[in-house]
Amino acid sequence: MSAEPGTVRPGGRTARVRAAVLRAAGDVLAEQGFDQLDLADIARRAEVGKTTVYRRWGSVTGLVADLLVDMAEQSSPREETGSVLGDLRANASLVQRTLADPRQGALFRAVIAAAACDERTAAALWRFYEVRVDEWAPCVEQGVARGELPAGTDARAVVRAVSAPLYYGLLTSGVVPDAAAAERAARAAHAAAAAGVYVTE
């Protein structure tokens, strides 16, 4: 079975083409939003052939899907501080810095808005977050192993609980979360986890 357009990671010379096209797509998303994405315009901005872009990605949604794959690959790896609270703080801080970044924050808002009305974009966004949750879940699992959290704690649910209030606050108020918001999110998720809220077994 063949892969969807844009989901096969190229190597060698074509890696430069992919990087240029994804950068151009991210710029348009951040500056103008999903509605302004056009493959011909992206090709022009990236200074690559239009047929190359159409052949490799096929559609705007295919391009956005690959952009999210790239973003997941480029995201910072988890930090291990030696305590589950410290790790959750590191995770919250990473999310907060991403949302506060002028380009990244605008890009995420555009993709989230597009995902609300486009199934392929929504699926790509879900895959992006699955990758990020998978990256950070071991921090919680290690906390359980050290006895900091109850056995049976759902590690993935705890990681989601850290970032959820930061995204919710941004989307419902338009206010970019600050460091204090990140600290509250980490402490709240940790307190709930320590109290057994996320025990599922």
UniProtKB/TrEMBL annotation:
Gene3D superfamilies: Homeodomain-like, Tetracycline Repressor, domain 2. Keywords: DNA-binding, Transcription, Transcription regulation. It holds the Pfam family TetR_C_11. Residues 15-75 form the HTH tetR-type domain. Signal peptide: none annotated. It comes from the Bacteria. InterPro entries: Homeodomain-like_sf, HTH-type_TetR-like_transc_reg, HTH_TetR, Tet_transcr_reg_TetR-rel_C_sf, TetR_C. Residues 38-57 bind DNA. This is TetR family transcriptional regulator. It comes from Streptomyces pharetrae CZA14. The lineage of its organism: Bacteria, Bacillati, Actinomycetota, Actinomycetes, Kitasatosporales.
